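Task 17 of the worksheet. Students: predict the tertiary structure of the chain below and write it out as structure tokens. Keep your answer in the requested format; marks are given for formatting as well as content.
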Amino acid sequence: MSRFKPALLLLFVGSGFAALVYEVVWFHLLQLVIGASSISLAVLLGSFMGGMCLGSIAFGRLVSRKLHPLRVYAWLEFGIGGIGLVLLFLLPLIGRIYLTSVGYGLEGILFRGFIAAICLLPPTVLMGATLPAIARWIRTTRIGVSQLGFFYGANIVGAVLGTFLTGFFLLRLFDTVVATYVAISVNLLVGAVALRLAARSPFEASDLEETDQSDSPAPIAPYVVIALSGLTALGAEVVWTRQLSLLFGTTVYNFSLILLVFLSGLGIGSTFGAVISKRTRAPADALGRCQLLLVPAILWGSILITDRMPYWQPNDEFLPWILESTSYIFAFDMIRCTIAMLPATILWGASFPLALAAVARRGDPGRLVGGIYGANTAGAIVGSLFFTMIWIPMAGTRSAQQAFMVIAAGAALLMLGSKDTDASGKKPEEGTEATGSKLSISYLGSLAFVLVVTLVLVAVMPATPQGLIAYGRFIEYWGQDTEFLYTAEGIDASVAVSEFEGERSMHVAGKVVASNVQIDMRLQRMLGHMPALVHEKPRSVLIVGCGAGVTAGSFVVHPDIERIVICEIEKRVPEAAAEFFGTENYDVLNDPRTELVIDDARHFLATTDEKFDIITSDPIHPWVRGAAAMYSAEYFEMVREHLNPGGVVTQWVPLYETSEDAVKSQLATFVGAFPDATVWTSDIFGGGYDVFILGQDGPTTIQVEDMDRRMRESPVLYQSLIDVDLESAVDLLGAYGNRAPDMAEWLSDAQLNSDRNLRLQYLAGLHLDRYVETDIYKAMTTPRQYPSDIFLTENPFYESALREAFRQAGLAAPN
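Model answer:
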């Protein structure tokens, strides 16, 4: 085998690369079908990792030992590639079947899991079997098994490459189809090379020991410990990804950076673990010490991420040159991430080959490796799902990390104190009662010492700062003198409510999403009042994204509204909105006309037959990972199909923390579904910090006198408008920016955002630190003409006032 080892390592690099590409693509495609809520993500992750666990465990029991390991490995790769190709064309069909059959409640959740299992279990079972397959070419001695650590590390190296290329190139420049074809090509190449190597290296089934010839039962402790190691590893990844995303910004690029560093640490650790397991005669002892060292390593990562790194931000005084380039910012973030995460990830990576060496004994190596790999994966499933879905929402990230430290200490004590080994990793000799007594006293003393030290370290674990939850990467500027009225770490996002000098703000995922400040109130009210007044007589409305509830509350004061549906993915958001913004949102969440749906709004639209007179959408920034699905061509077509005749849709479009290309993508994609769309600004000075786009199934026309009359007929409605300096129809229509036909030339080179590529999140994610809103608004509104075919009036007063407002808006626009 030694002469083929370099080639085999390269093959495992290819396997890891393809597997990661598939993981990203399949998660992307399936989220569009079953939704992006926490429940959907849980069933996706559970299905993916569960399949790998099943494959690793089942291989040794179902696949004959007489087959050549390299041929088995080759056909596993061919199978993965074949299923990947089938899924590319099968997923749309499965999606249509699912969307016509799904319901809500427990039945709906179970059906989501069924769909995820159908799609993900077949290929992931094959992925999980690849390492046990290749293990059958290695004898199950301690030194032989140590070689598998290198293969495991090579697989992780491939995953690192897959993370980098998928996140920064394949999906940014191409789409999911191209990415899938790349992964399939790698599978086919790996399989072909494996078959070629198999032809040049004869294999006899007699090379494998058919039975376990050792004189004692297999040790249980290493299986338990490696499962606990997987639990703490994936649990910590969930926590640290969540915290670092607040710190760096929740873009697709930063998510890839965090995953890249985490996987790199595992790969480095696996290599070290393989070297150690080859040289040491006490791998069980080394495995226990790895778990013990995880206690301070986890604390180290937590302290840096929550207590130090938030204040290591490049600014005019500290490393200002980093801000000159997005690449520099990414590199700086990667360095910070590496410093925090690498110690713990190296230890988790080293644990796998050490666990293999700790159970090395004669027998089927495929079954041995499958058992350890399966235990590790099973622990990872529990760690990621339990802490994401239950522990963090109930007890928070600090408590979760404290639990990881306690679990790691417990795993260390279990391994070091196992009956199978003494402190040196050797079995105690029979008939040495005195030695056993001394060992017992020594072990009890070590136990007490470890427990005391662990409890001390657990006590100093820092909490996630409220300022980080609220302001994310801007904590140093805004999070110091603010009073926090509410903070919560929900399943899907962290939520906060803050107050500073009487200004109250709602924060989600480390950024302000709503407030009672005039400029924000004006936007939030306009997103509701404008479509309600454009529509002749609206009765039903769907609000996408709750925020502070101000937009939803705007409909409460319209007398004809009979039904208000609010879709919000994170349940903590409406809880905070009801408690702290009840006055601003007219207590909409307790209004009998309101139905609150806690789910991905896109999934709700795709699975309901209900149609609405108004759909107004105010999702989070498009640079946030996953948010681009709420700005895609398919989503806007779905919105159009759920409008009643004469229905109106409005969509928020931020011009700050973005680029002109990203704004073009949003507008051009919307215009594809609503060709006569119009753009409106909420800036009282005529600029474009925030704008929104309004569309109907046909040209929009507004009877000016009728709008003005309806505004004044209801005192509560009129006061709601006056509160944001909109005292007449002229004031409201004076917010007109431009319309799609007049922006045709500007939008001609726009990159459309579709489900297949979600191009928007890659465009916007490169510019979250840019503030060029004035330039974007100027380009968007040049040229523009007075919309006499939209503003319909026979009253000379209104005509004159509207033309003057239009002229003044042009003068007030940035030069």
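Marker's comment: The two ends are 72 Å apart (CA to CA). The chain has a mean pLDDT of 89.
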